[in-house]
UniProtKB/TrEMBL annotation:
Reaction catalyzed: 2 D-alanine + ATP = D-alanyl-D-alanine + ADP + phosphate + H(+)
Main function: Cell wall formation.
Keyword flag Glycoprotein: no
Organism this protein belongs to: Litoribacter ruber
Name of the protein in its database record: D-alanine--D-alanine ligase
Bound cofactor: record note: Binds 2 magnesium or manganese ions per subunit.
Amino acid sequence: MKKKIALVTGGFTGESVISIKSATVVEKTIDRDKYDVFKILIYPGDWYHESPSGEKYPVDLNDFSIQVEGQKISFDGVFNILHGSPGEDGKLAGYFDMIGLPYTTCDAMTSAITMNKGYTKAIVDDIPELNVAKSLQLFANSPANTQRVKDELSMPLFIKPNNGGSSIGMSKVKTEEELQEALDKAFAEDKQVLVEEFVSGREFSIGIYTAKGVTTVLPATEIVSSKEYFDFEAKYTAGVTEEITPGRMNEEEVERVRRIVAKAYEKLNCKGAVRIDYFLEHETGKFFFIEINTVPGQTETSLISQQVRAIGKEVKEFYTELIEEMF
């Protein structure tokens, strides 16, 4: 008997378009000899399964089941590929915990904390060999906070929504004249904003996941963008960014990065596959933590898939390992 898997996508934020792209890739790659897959789209007030012919079947929120042609379908587990809220910030995880339905991603507590960039940095800050850029976490777009940024931090700065993803609402600020516009842009996306001093370094992104009780650190991808930084366009437009997997690191750097990200995964109590973004500072080679993504993208250009293939594993097998880890 094949397990019935709900492939959860959609979302309440601008990242929903990426969630749909990710779900399309997962849906066509997942092992259909092992699993019956039902794509579930989640939008505000509208949770449903859509048939190939376009017919919508609403989700019964009492037990996350659907009725298709008079037959009730209950799921054995959830493959969560919903970026942003509510799939990445702990809301869905809490709901699934309450109804006793397993899922492929981090638990509600870890998801909620890691969605908040400032809180995450505070937790990982004492990991040996891990550094974080000097920053301010702002809770209001006020003249006083704008002045705090000018007084306490040095240009250039990165300004980003504290709970956002896909670089939506993010800006690089080089002068005080650009500051307020960047804060306005970030606060339009979130009630909390993180302002960080710029770290000059080589940028990398690395996947790490647990399967069969074993945690595997994948080869890092080096990000070489033709844009000034790895923004939304650079992430999702083919040809804008060169992605080198494995990234260009010497043996010492590879081992040090593996140690650090494994500690971060453990300390944040992660589950399933996550992706950690970091810099290696130009002058010193020091590891600077940028952020963690607990629902990493699975689009055609996604980094995790490149890294899985780099260790000689098929992405289909990787998805099977994530699913089986639920049970």
